[in-house]
Amino acid sequence: MRKYLLLLVAFAFVFCPVLADAAAKADTKYIVYYFRTTGRCHSCIQMEKMTKETIEKDFAKEVKSGLVEFRSVDVETPQNKHYIKDYGLYTKSVIISEVKNGKETRWKNLDQIWKKLRNEYEFRLYISDELRQFMKGAK
């Protein structure tokens, strides 16, 4: 009986930190926003399409589990105008947001999207790499 109790205590010391870390990550979510206006040009539509497809393809497992989510947001609607001030938006933008326990803890503006728009491969690689790096930076 004592051996089983010692094994149980040893198990708890080894696996509790792992379980606690997993529980903390379960409360974390990454939202990739594409902020746009109501009227959109071809480039803006293409940018949204490539961002969404990159997230759905390169992060399919994370999307399915709910860890990563893509949202297209029209900042011209009254309920979404606050994003302009919240993120300092001045043009169509892709923002990665980390949300823990329902509250945003940090975010990043992917400010190179317009420079990479003409090269689909570079654009998709940029979105994917930036999200991976952002997720690695989570604590």
List keywords for this structure.
alpha+beta, 139 residues, 6 helices, four-stranded mixed β-sheet
Q: How would you describe this protein?
A:
It is a single chain. The chain is globular and about 35 Å long. The termini are far apart. It has six helices and four strands; from the N terminus they run αβααβαββαα. The longest helix has 25 residues, at 2-26. α2 crosses α6 (120-136). It has helices at 2-26, 42-58, 60-65, 82-87, 113-116, 120-136, and strands spanning 28-36, 68-74, 93-100, 103-109. 54% of the residues lie in helices and 22% in strands. It has a four-stranded mixed sheet. By secondary structure, it is an alpha+beta fold. Residues 4-13 and 16-24 have low confidence and may be disordered.
Distance between the termini: 39 Å
The total count of helices amounts to 6
> Total strand count, please?
4
Low-confidence stretches: 4-13, 16-24
Strand content: 15-25%
Global mean pLDDT: 87
Shape: globular
- Please identify the structural class as seen in this structure: alpha+beta
Rounded Rg:
20 Å
H/E order of the elements? HEHHEHEEHH
Widest β-sheet, arrangement of strands = 2-1-3-4
Helix content: 40-55%
Largest sheet: 4 strands, mixed
Q: What is this structure, in a nutshell?
A:
The protein is α+β, with helices and mostly antiparallel strands and 139 residues long.
Secondary structure elements and their pairing?
Elements (H helix, E strand, L loop, with lengths): L1 H25 L1 E9 L5 H17 L1 H6 L2 E7 L7 H6 L5 E8 L2 E7 L3 H4 L3 H17 L3
Parallel strand pairs: 1-2
Antiparallel strand pairs: 1-3, 3-4
